[in-house]
Amino acid sequence: MKTFRLFALVLCTAAIATPLSWKPAPAQEVLQIAQSNWNTFSSPNGGFSILMPGTPQPVVQQTVNLPEGQVTSSLFGSRTEDSAYIVGYSDLPGAAIASAADRQLLFDSFLEGFARSINGQVVGQNPIQLNRYEGREFEVQMNEGITAIGRVYLVEQRLYQMVAVIQREQNSPQRIQGFFDSFRLATDSTAQPTR
Which long-range contacts (CB under 8 A, 24 or more apart) does 155-158 make? Predict the structure, then answer.
């Protein structure tokens, strides 16, 4: 299980390091960003769709070999003038999440590694569900007034991840809630997140 914790840290670091290194949009792009609408982003390989600003780009596509098996991750990101949005998935080996305790450890390790990788502090977390699938909603605060609000769901052997990174004073609950609530599994377009 120690290796599984290491995987969670590697996954979180890879998931967040690139989008957070984005700098604010140059002034000439601000008008374009402000005029852009949110669009449905679909990942046929990932089996999901979600509303995101602009055109999401691949951020991370990697495979990690662990004693429990191979983990393949794909993450996509887009940004607005004051925020970044990340969505993706990781295919996990069955041996890593064989029990309910393993699933809870996965969520705990993900959140711990995520917060550590961005030098943040967890200020809230709640169990959530997407139909019958378990998940976590969380908030991590970082320096300089930046907050990361996210959700993760474990669907069979796949961990779906969604994170909105925002300036605290720019926090738009409706925009973030719309991002999370628009997430749909391709196999179940009626799946609705619940708390």
Answer: 155/130, 155/185, 157/91, 157/92, 157/93, 157/94, 157/97, 158/46, 158/47, 158/89, 158/90, 158/91, 158/92
**HSE (side-chain half, CA atoms, 13 Å) at 40:** 9
Nearest to 59 by CA among 45, 42, 73, 38: 73
Total domains in the chain come to 1
Cβ-based burial of 46 (10 A; exposed 0-12, middle 13-18, buried ≥19): buried
Domain that holds residue 94: 2-194
Residue 140, amino acid: V
pLDDT digits (tens, 9 = 90+) for 134-151: 999 999 999 888 999 999
Indicate whether 26 pLDDT > 70: no
Q: What are the pLDDT digits (tens) for 87-138?
A: 999 999 877 787 888 889 999 999 999 999 899 999 999 999 998 999 999 9
Over its C-alpha atoms, the chain yields an Rg (Å, rounded) of: 16
Which alpha helices (H) appear in the chain, and where do they start and end? 2-20, 27-35, 100-117, 173-181
Count of residues making up the chain: 195
pLDDT band, very low/low/confident/very high, at 10 (cuts 50, 70, 90): very low
Domain with residue 6: its CATH number is 3.40.1000.10
pTM (2 d.p.): 0.79
